[in-house]
Amino acid sequence: MRAATSPEAAQSRIGTLETPCLIIDAARMDRNIARLRDRLAPMGVPLRPHLKTAKSIEVAVRAMSSPQGPATVSTLKEAAFFAAAGVRDIIYAVGITPCKLAKVIELRQNGVDLAVILDTVEQAEAVALASRTSGEVIPALIEIDCDGHRSGVPPQDKDRLLSIGRAITQGGELRGVMTHAGGSYAARGATALRQAAETERRSVVDAANILRQAGLPCPVVSVGSTPTAHYATDLSGVTEVRAGVFVFFDLVMAGIGICEIDDIAMSVLATVIGHQREKGWILIDAGWMAMSQDRGTSKQQIDQGYGLVCDSAGTPFQDLILADANQEHGILKVRPGSNAALPELAIGDRVRILPNHACATGAQHRSYHIVHGTSDIVTNEWVRFTGW
Q1: 20 to 30 Å CA-CA from 85: which of 46, 55, 56, 147?
Q2: CA nearest to 176, candidates 197, 207, 203
């Protein structure tokens, strides 16, 4: 199964698209993917891309090392969608609940090596029971909390870790340990980012050693976040790296220092619909429904509002941001404190807005319109999916 490619999009131009819509610069995207692969290759650790941002088969086949995977997903709908396209090696990287195990079993019985994650004895017991009852052994990874960001077992909590591991093996398969260094999003500077990566690595390696010393299997030691993937200097003991937003990047990643503005491959195309000249406003037809309400740069050194404004070729205007947003209206303004001039944009002119958070902005749209570099030719339209 392949995603449909819209014939109407083939060889059309940016100026003819209905707005707002989502644009992907394929040249930037391919460069971003190659960059992370090339970085990990000398350390001998494979990439298991997280497809939650892309939600597109066309993007997935570029990010994965083979059409069969490996891949990471955040919903069972993603797992089913990519499985239907031939992906066979998947981790569902959100804590499992008993009500979802029937779907996991169904996918596994259809030939998908789908693994789940968990961090409690209750979840482990549910996985083991479902495995015994169905006759389909469900593999599970124990989630490790490496930085207090969200969920997981602290690596030093030996008793809890072993209790979960032993419960899984009463019918299920203990496949290993995994963690997500979500705290790395708050790190600033190369030293802090390298430390976050080492803390992430050490937490799962220590947890794996505890399990192995107790006679429990731990073949997979999985780490993952886009910041740590780009700053890790030592991946000893790690068997795979997971990352997702690196495919497109966004303004939050640029603010952390993981990428440059020129690396951001996703933008929202919008049309100028009005002016409030006395207020220094330009109005566009893209509000928070097109961009999302994510304000992830508001706590960073440079607040990008709802997004950074570029011309139709993708070149940023000086200090022009999407400063405010209603449902379908966006207000462009010069960044506070800047001496930049408001650009002369006429009614009907097109602009492209770089997003704060590629995952959240992508979720507002049903397809990607594909361009290459500064060309205004739209070569394809790739379908993406939403929901759970």
Answers
A1: 46
A2: 207
For the chain, what is the domain count?
Answer: 2
Listing DSSP states for 329-366 in one string gives -EEEEEPTT--PPPP---TT-EEEEE-S-HHHHHTT-S
* Residues in Cβ contact with 151 at an 8 Å cutoff, skipping those fewer than 6 apart: 95, 119, 143, 145
Asked if residues 306 and 322 have their Cβ atoms less than 8 Å apart, the reply is yes
**In this structure, what CATH number is given to the domain that contains residue 215?**
3.20.20.10
Alpha-carbon distance of 23 to 362, in angstroms, equals 10
- Domain shared by 143 and 210, yes or no: yes
Burial group, residue 137, by CB count within 10 angstroms (0-12, 13-18, 19+): middle
Residue 342: its H or E element: none
Domain that holds residue 338: 261-383
- Sign of the C-alpha dihedral computed for residues 16, 354, 25 and 27 taken in this order: positive
Global pTM value: 0.94
Averaged over successive runs of 10 residues, the pLDDT of the chain (388 residues) comes to: 46 93 98 98 97 97 97 98 98 98 98 98 98 98 94 96 98 98 93 97 98 98 97 97 98 98 98 97 98 95 97 97 98 96 97 98 97 96 94
Count, residues in the chain:
388
| DSSP-derived secondary structure for 57-71 | HHHHHHHSSBTTB-E
Examine residue 45 and state whether it is found in any structural domain, yes or no: no
